[in-house]
Amino acid sequence: MKFTIQAACTNTSDPDKEEALTIGGIEGESIVDGPGFRYAVFVQGCCFSCPGCHNPQLQPFTGGRRIFIEEIAAAIQANPLLDGLTLSGGEPFTQAGPCASLARRVQNLGLTVVTYTGYCWEVLVSGDNRDWRRLLEATDILVDGPFIHELRNIDLRFRGSSNQRLIDVRRSLAEGIVRVLYP
Ligand code: SF4
After folding, report:
1. Which residues contact 131 (CB under 8 A, 6 or more apart)?
2. CA distance 4 to 137
3. 57, 113, 116, 143: least CB-packed within 10 angstroms?
């Protein structure tokens, strides 16, 4: 998951008082962070410490920069080639509230949302966390579970280790059972 830091926030309001994310970087046109052509946002901060993590610089909860979700949504809307948004990191569920709001805005544009997380599906759906639920419900494909170096497989689609699943979120929530894409 390589990415570049894009231009700094130009909005003159205060991102700490509006709905904003702390991010480590953005890749505006990615073909490796989910199916299709995607706008990938890498949040700053992760509560997991997976050995072999591809983005260890995104693990600390210090650093990064604040950016309004409106600014991200506008950038996505401005690119007609995009299939959707990918939320990665870092751990998106540590900023689930603004991630959910951004994801919903992107879905309302008719685009898809892929969210990467170190949490397993079973933990996310059993937790009593309103923002986690909002983010799940605004996600089309969830790539779940930590990266496990011993299970690393470079032939897998859109994930690094074989414990990770590409979950069809809408179907899984509706049926109450995990439905996996690209097994
Ligand atoms: S969950 Fe992802 S970002 Fe966090 S430590 Fe593991 S591989 Fe790195």
Report:
1. 96, 97, 100
2. 28
3. 57
For residue 6, is it within any domain?
Answer: no
What does pLDDT average to in each consecutive run of 10 residues of the chain (183 residues)? 40 64 98 97 97 96 97 98 97 97 97 98 94 97 97 95 97 97 78
35 lines ligand 1 (CB under 6 A): no
Atom 6 (ligand 1): residue with closest C-alpha?
50
Does residue 131 lie in a domain region? yes
Quickly list DSSP for 155-183: TSSS-SBTT-EEEEHHHHHHHTS--EE--
The count of domains in the chain is 1
Q: What is the pTM of this model?
A: 0.91
User: Would the CB of 92 count as within 6 Å of ligand 1?
Assistant: no
Q: Please report whether residue 9 resides in a domain.
A: no
CATH number for the domain spanning 43: value is 3.20.20.70
Residue 46 CB less than 6 A away from ligand 1 = yes
Tell me which of 55, 86, 88, 152 to substitute to probe ligand 1's pocket, judged by most ligand atoms within 8 Å of the beta carbon. Answer: 55
Q: Report yes or no: 34 and 86 within 8 Å, Cβ to Cβ.
A: yes
Cβ 50 under 6 angstroms from ligand 1: yes
Q: Would you say residue 5 lies in a domain? A: no
C-alpha 147 to ligand 1 mean position (Å): 6
Task: Locate the ligand 1 atom nearest the alpha carbon of residue 147 and give its number.
Answer: 7
Residue 15: per-residue pLDDT: 60
Range of the domain at 118: 16-181
